[in-house]
Amino acid sequence: MHLCSSYLTLNCLKLYIDAACSQGVGEALHQRQIVDGEPREGVIFYISMKLKDSEARYGATQMGFLCLVWALGKLQYYLEGAVFEVYTEFTTSKSLLNVKTTNRHILRWQIAIQEYRGNITIIYKEGKSHTNADGHWIMSKATQLMTLK
């Protein structure tokens, strides 16, 4: 198995982001790999975060932005300098880099992701087909693991 190590490999990394209603967010970082001469996608990381009470009250726009910014911050060492795709069920996430607003949260988030401008492609993926980073699943697995300890 060979990991994508060439700079010329396009879209090697994919980040899937999802919010589990008002409970938490889940993200999955995938990497395209060549296995037996065939390109396949493999998981590098699953991460999740329980939402604070104030975050749970965010609207769809802010929730989508929160998911994206939090994931980029947590996975910075893997994504810095890489060209990658982000798959999200939030249509508004595509506009985070370009939206004009006076909302202080959104302005702060825009500044936080400026370093990824030009390297990031945000792609909308309908919720039904967007199960790679299902927040409910990730959070339930994390709860099961904590219960086992």
TrEMBL record:
Reverse transcriptase RNase H-like domain residues: 14-116
Tree of life domain: Eukaryota
UniProt keyword Nucleotidyltransferase, yes or no: yes
Pfam families: RT_RNaseH (PF17917)
Record-level Gene Ontology MF annotations: endonuclease activity; hydrolase activity; RNA-directed DNA polymerase activity
SUPFAM superfamilies xrefs: DNA/RNA polymerases
Keyword Iron (UniProt): no
TM spans (from-to): none
InterPro entries, A to Z: DNA/RNA_pol_sf, Retrovirus_Pol_polyprotein, RT_RNaseH
Keywords: Endonuclease, Hydrolase, Nuclease, Nucleotidyltransferase, RNA-directed DNA polymerase, Transferase
Protein name in the entry: Reverse transcriptase RNase H-like domain-containing protein
Organism of this sequence: Austropuccinia psidii MF-1
